[in-house]
Write a structure and sequence with these properties.
Length: about 250
Amino acid sequence: MAETTRHLTVRIKRFDPETDSAPHWEEYQVEAEPWDRVLDVIQKVKWTIDDGLALRRSCAHGVCGSDAMRINGRNQLACKVLVKNLPDNTIRVEPILGLPVIKDLVVDMKPFFDHYKSVMPFLVNDEPPPTTERLQSIAARARFDDTTKCILCACCTTACPPFWGDRKYVGPAAIVNAHRFIFDSRDRAAAERLEILNDAEGVWRCRTVFNCTEVCPREIKVTQAISEVKRALLTGDVGEIDASAETAAAAS
């Protein structure tokens, strides 16, 4: 049987610093098709009911990460959540946690990007450049391939209880992006990045809650990447990890 139009109750947490002393919830009634996304639903609210609603969006295809928000209590990209997969006809939408709210669903991303920049998220190699690109083996690339998928949406960091309690904590996304270069065989600044992360506000703040891994829209093994950085700090080894040992550890 074909799925039919759903009549949704959309509850959005609103806050306008020019008029509000505190955030509050507002409720809207919206009709949506099963294959609409939550982003479509929110935009329908903005375009047809309340044009003062503030939100971020760009590509709307799960690539830019700009429309990260809490949907029914879970960090997600609004452009990836289909109406047909909602458990009922009520949607609760609010901004991601742990970052200052500018207005409605828009948060100030500067603290997040300051942490990201602090881990040197770029290739460092002062050796004379080759005549072609810097080559590496398939195995060497596979060592950090998973962490290249990060789109900096902040879903992982703003789902992290230690980050909620301590905004100085560098956060999962920064560690993921440090991992991407620490284990890159072409890079020469692994020791410097590890020193940055070897801090009370660095990798040791992680409590292995797994929230970060659960909410990552790119399905990055965030907690595993953090544990690999911890291991590198303890052993000084940034070489290849025994895949069988990693699989066994993940299963335990």
